[in-house]
Amino acid sequence: MKNRKPMQKMLAMLLILILMGTLGLTGCSSNNDTTEPVGSTNGEAVEKTNKIFDSKIEAKFASEEIEGDFMTVWAEYFADEMLAWSDGDFDVTVYPYGTLGDTRDINELAQYGVVEYVFTDFAWISAFVPEAQVLALHYIWPSERLPEVIDHVVRNGEFMDILEESFRRNGLVPLSVMYEGWQWMTANKPIRTVEDMNGFKVRVMGSTLLVEDYMAYGASPTPMSYGEVYGGLQMGLIDGQVNPIFAIRSMNFYEVQNYFTQIYAEPFLGIPTVNMQFFDSLPQEAQQKMREWWIDAIIPSGKWIDEKTEIDLEAMLKDKPSIEVIEVTGEDLKPFKERAEKVYPKFLEIGGVQAEEILEALQKDIEAAKKALGIND
């Protein structure tokens, strides 16, 4: 994306705000999926003795993903829950990817308060919150029972408090960290060893640290907007890309790629985020409700996405049987891990004022979670 002057940015934000208020941009106020999330009221109002809000609140929730994908589906579940819990007083409208601009745009909209919520990820939000890039470090997470590990870290560790401090310096508040499946590399050549990565032009999300991760493997990483990836693959501007399975299917990347490779280096982690000024203006009961709902959703949404991953992978293999799925394991995985570890010091240079603090906290919290859950990875 080209750099824009501050005045141009502000004018763009104001224009979007005017359009949203006068033209009624298409959003999603409910979800048609029959699966009910944990803690759902199934659309029934919760009986309360005291009214929480003095007047009706209408909020906008921008998603990085298209209709039917993880972020948009779970944002819709959240919207349904808040509407029922508040007896109709807290009305959230969800805007899928592309409705309000690209990924960087919607993060800026949330920061400026043009939208109240954004479902972001650790990579794109790092343009504002460099500490979030700690989640981009490869092999920092165990490869098994990851939703449970994340749940333990978010509930019991120090990491979330530090992450919130860094977000608040930029006018935002993170409500949780959500597992959206493991990232897969797709390519038109087989990648079985780290040597196969040499010169591989791979699209990554917009994070300086992700670029460092893949450069360490010998690849030539290229940040690119989500909506430009298919064309980039089709025209040969890039050789491959990195995304979770659901995105590879929903964005049709598999149509122009022949190999899927899993190295278990990087889970895709979403961060439901709210504008700080808006959040702090809400009653404490509402703030607590939002935090609890998203944290309680970590494990069930993890199960949901794992099931969807199996369905989506099976569907792609049925549609294109020539696709070869490669899982790198054992001795072939060690060189990836060895090179990934060399990137950790780089995070301390580019990860913001709390880089060292947040890295130490996350590593400590993950080890505590593994011990509590009996994970030896």
UniProtKB/TrEMBL annotation:
It holds the Pfam family DctP. One of its GO terms (biological process) is transmembrane transport. Keywords: Signal, Transport. Residues 1-26 form the signal peptide. The keyword Transport applies. Belongs to the bacterial solute-binding protein 7 family. This is TRAP-type C4-dicarboxylate transport system, substrate-binding protein. It comes from Alkaliphilus peptidifermentans DSM 18978. The lineage of its organism: Bacteria, Bacillati, Bacillota, Clostridia, Peptostreptococcales.
